[in-house]
Design brief:
The complex is a heterodimer of chains A (432) and B (98). With 432 residues, chain A is of the alpha/beta class. Among the domains of chain A are: 4-64 and 105-174 and 291-354, FAD/NAD(P)-binding domain (3-Layer(bba) Sandwich), CATH 3.50.50.60; 371-431. Chain A has 15 helices and 17 strands. Chain A has helices spanning 14-25, 51-57, 106-119, 166-170, 194-201, 242-248, 252-260, 266-269, 316-335, 342-354, 356-363, 367-373, 380-393, 400-415, 417-431; strands spanning 4-10, 30-33, 48-50, 67-79, 84-90, 101-104, 123-125, 130-136, 139-145, 151-159, 182-191, 207-215, 223-229, 233-241, 273-283, 294-295, 298-300. In chain A, the strands form two sheets. In chain A, strands 3, 4, 5, 6, 11, 12, 13, 14 and 15 form a nine-stranded mixed beta sheet that branches. In chain A, a hairpin with a 4-residue loop joins strand 4 and strand 5 (84-90). Chain A is globular. The relative contact order of chain A is 0.15. Chain B contains four helices and six strands. A two-stranded antiparallel sheet of chain B has the order 1-6. A two-stranded antiparallel ribbon of chain B has the order 2-5. Classes of the chains: A alpha/beta (432), B alpha+beta (98).
Chain lengths: 432, 98
Amino acid sequence: MAEKFDVIVVGAGPSGNAAALKLAESGLSVLQIERGESPGSKNVQGAILYSDALEKLIPDFRDDAPLERHVIEQRMWVLDDDSFVGTHYRSDSFNKEPYNRYTMIRAQFDKWFSERVQKAGALLICETTVSHLLLDGQRVIGVMTDRQGGEIYADAVILADGVNSLLAKKAGFHPELKPKNVALAVKEIHFMPQELIEQRFGVKGDEGVVIEMVGKITKGMMGTGFLYTNRESITIGVGCMLSDFKNQKITPYELLEQMKAHPSIKPMLEGGEMKEYTAHLIPEGGFNAIPNLYGDGWMIVGDAGMFVNAVHREGSNLAMTTGMHAADTLIELKSEGKEFSAANLKRYKARLDESFVMKDMKKYKNMPDVFHTNPQFFNDYPDLISQAARTMLTVDGVDKKTKEKQIRKSFSQRRSLFGLMGDAFKLWRAFE
Amino acid sequence: MSVVVKVEEKLFQNRYKVDSGRPHISIIDEDKCRNHCEAQACTVCCPAACWTAEANGQVTVISDGCLECGTCRIICDEHSNVAWEYPRGGYGILFKFG
């Protein structure tokens, strides 16, 4: 007779770790299966950690979590070919503990998180790939791994297997992802002396800066670039919808290289040594692309469930929160002596609906479509904005009123007055 | 603006444990790539340049440098011609920083 657990969690990223931690703390027998050599070795993120979700799971996480810098300044840049227009928001209130957000390095963070999970009593096996789910009719009864005698059984399986979500797909729980529902992000990490980062970005100690970028760097594709300061390194990357990469026939590492060569970005990377190049898909299909999240003996959490708020660049916090709710659902059912059937696991969905997770996903449900069908937001506007700034800031003997006229004209020529009004309306509706 | 990029130099910085002789990605029907797919988007959009459009129209894949993102499988939405599994446990890309 093969071993049987209360719950098997597939994956040791933020959602799987959150679920396994909660379950183990409540005394359920938990097996967590990770295909990497250690937790984090298959995982990629920007990465920004929002404190709130983790704090609910591990209140004292700041004591020993491998955090890089707490973010005190957020920059938003709109770039054209050789310039940028930007807003910088820096506040000393971000310097008051407890800090609200941090930059982090995922391979290190996931390892640390997993150690906490194991301390709580979950059993972790690494270097093990789950090839498919074991089904009894429609009911999930365990997993098949690539280890010898690879069948392992459980009363419930939590699928925290990441954006590709192969297991649910193979079981027929949801169809293949569509290119318009995922973004492809590529990034590099550049190491440089801590003092150089502090000088360059005007920070001291553990203070950090993040820069989000839109404009010409994405060649009209729906997407953003980003630069995050870590303690002794800088993460630089760019992500765009996979459908746009496909339609425009763009090679991701060339896009990244061109972005790095931008005259406003290049100086920030000088003196650094590139130590790793990564690529990853981000599930950005939004609310309308969320798959069925539960069934007899199974639940989906994190990226596998499309839980990313692309507008606010949130993902790992949604992952942890969905993992937590999945675990709480099982803990509750177990204490009531109820089975993990689809009818009972419905409570997981109800919990999510009540939480900020579904409320936020719902709020922005039209955002992906608005941007997919209106490329001007990533194309014309960044161009027009930097042209406008250049016109106003160039002192050349032309009076300011004439300059204003020129700017107005450039906008209405490019987009027409109705186009401009329509765009404002579309954005307002999508953000509403 | 054109920048020459050698993706091999990027991938060289990464850590891999290659499962020799057991590629985790393969083409299901080579004829489909050669004769029924004009775009061959996998050969353009793979972030690790695992896919090559050969001169004879054939598409080939060598997954040693794969970053396991899933792009090639999802981008092949019209033909669903990519057999894509995760590498065996412990093999494939091993991110140092992620």
